[in-house]
Write a sequence for this structure.
């Protein structure tokens, strides 16, 4: 797998917030603001430095963080445009054709055994998608959990979005597994998206996967604080501990280390433990 490494990271602060920071840098008159990128005691979490800035922008807006992405992954996949046409039948019995491109996309790789027959319709670069998520810079757990819905429930460090463990309303992922690429992802009505552990950058380790719509981060199957699989996860795969991005214990999610269909690991099969914002 080819993986484009994140080489830069910046914080964008707009409008009055930016003016306030500049003014404080000159006057140093407000203890709640300084020239370090902190506003009202709020700063960007260090984990956001992992996100690929070719695809994702992260902006601090007061006590909120705005994450915007073009929805594109930064790694290889058979779902990039390519010179092989393919057809698929949707659940309603409609035949959907993905036409051949004139050339293969630079990040295209053939599917396993060159078998295109199970692939979902549509290529990554067919989608002119953009997504925006606004979360609290310091999210807290809600008084009760809430169920995830269909569609995007998080944004991955690669730029693509995260889905839950369903292929449709109350339809498990089982029958769609054959369409998933090496990163547990495929195309759908609106996007290229991950359901399973994305092996391009996380495979049985503690690396950051992305941020879930309630503002809590999602990490790999292992816990960085111990180097082993956590044993205290709640029903959503979450617990409180330090991570590679903080020396202070905080709540975060892990890919649950429970095998699915004998060989896969679902990214997020539980409920939101915080208050989720809509990914638009």
């Amino acid at each position: 797998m080819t993986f484009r490494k994140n080489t830069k990271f910046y914080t964008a602060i707009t409008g009055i917030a930016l003016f306030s920071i500049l003014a404080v840098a000159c006057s140093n008159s407000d203890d709640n603001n300084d020239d370090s990128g902190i506003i009202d005691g709020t700063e960007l979490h260090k984990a956001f430095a992992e996100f690929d800035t070719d695809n994702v922008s992260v902006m601090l807006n007061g006590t909120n963080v705005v994450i915007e992405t073009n929805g594109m992954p930064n790694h290889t996949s058979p779902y990039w445009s390519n010179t092989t046409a393919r057809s698929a039948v949707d659940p309603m019995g409609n035949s959907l054709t993905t036409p051949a491109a004139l050339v293969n996309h630079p990040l295209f790789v053939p599917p396993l055994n060159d078998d295109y027959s199970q692939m979902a319709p549509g290529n990554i670069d067919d989608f002119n998608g953009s997504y925006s998520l606004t979360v609290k810079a310091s999210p807290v757990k809600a008084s009760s959990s809430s169920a995830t819905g269909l569609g995007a429930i998080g944004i991955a460090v690669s730029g693509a979005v995260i889905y839950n463990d369903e292929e449709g309303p109350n339809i498990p992922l089982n029958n769609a597994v054959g369409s998933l690429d090496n990163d547990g992802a495929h195309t759908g009505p609106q996007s290229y998206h991950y359901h399973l552990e994305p092996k391009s950058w996380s495979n049985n380790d503690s690396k950051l996967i992305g941020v879930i719509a309630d503002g809590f981060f999602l990490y790999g199957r292992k816990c960085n604080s111990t180097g082993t699989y956590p044993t205290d996860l709640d029903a959503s795969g979450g617990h409180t501990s330090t991570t590679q991005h903080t020396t202070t214990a905080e709540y975060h999610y892990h890919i649950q280390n429970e095998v699915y269909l004998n060989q896969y690991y679902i990214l997020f099969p539980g409920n939101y433990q915080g208050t989720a914002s809509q990914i638009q």
Q: What stands out?
A: Residues 1-39 have pLDDT under 50 and may be disordered. The longest strand covers residues 246-254. The two ends are 29 Å apart (CA to CA).
